[in-house]
Amino acid sequence: MSKNSGSRYVIEEKIFRNNGTVASYPLIVSGDATEKLDALNEIILEDLNKILRTYSADAFKPPAGMPDVFMGDTLNLSYDVLRNDSNYLSIFYTADFFSPYAAYPTQTVYTTNIDVQNAKRIKLSDLTSVDDALITEFLSWEPVNINPGYIRGIRDYIRGLGTETLRRGFSSADIIGPGNFLGIFSYLKPGRLGLSISLPNYLGNHAEYETDKR
To answer: Helices marked H in 6-123 — which ranges?
Structure first.
């Protein structure tokens, strides 16, 4: 199966299965020299492995001496290719995770943005200035594809974080791991810059915001 056919790169969907994990991810199969494709796919696979390690089963074993009488963890990872052209490749992952030791399922967003010309993974700070002006602008954006009943609560939650916390969160955006303490990930669409921010479960786990790319 291919996604975004007709774009610069021909991409095929691959499936990884292991115990309760089912991960769908893209690999580029044509559209450039073999060496370039290998370099781009290496970036994709490195990020994929970082995501999967975040949900390592070792982190969710029952306490010592307690029998494991529950079903195992389940992780379903899916993706969308949001931009695929001569400048950028932007992949948006959605991870649905459930552990029998957790109170409720979670849904988390991760992204991989690649500068295609230089075969380099890029972060928010490579796409725009991460400064107080960006934070002020961000606070005026409206979330996209969000249940209207959540919007006020989301706005209050984000504003309640405060400028300094948001500044540190934006500075650590796009790290796949504990360093990204607000769970902020950037993504790209043609002519658009998007930001996803992690939220408490009662607000829907995450929200996405978009603006014209500066």
So the answer is: 34-54
User: Which domains, ranges and CATH numbers included, belong to the chain?
Assistant: 1-122 (3.30.565.40), 123-214 (no CATH)
Report the sign of the C-alpha dihedral through residues 47, 72, 79, 92, in that order.
negative
What single letter denotes the amino acid at residue 46? E
Q: What is the pLDDT along the chain (214 residues), one digit of tens a residue?
A: 344 444 799 999 999 999 889 999 999 999 999 999 999 999 999 999 999 999 875 444 555 555 555 567 899 999 999 999 999 999 999 999 998 877 889 999 999 999 999 999 999 999 999 999 999 999 999 899 888 889 999 999 999 999 999 999 999 999 999 999 999 999 999 999 999 999 999 999 999 999 997 5
Q: How many helices (H) and strands (E) does the chain have?
A: 5, 11
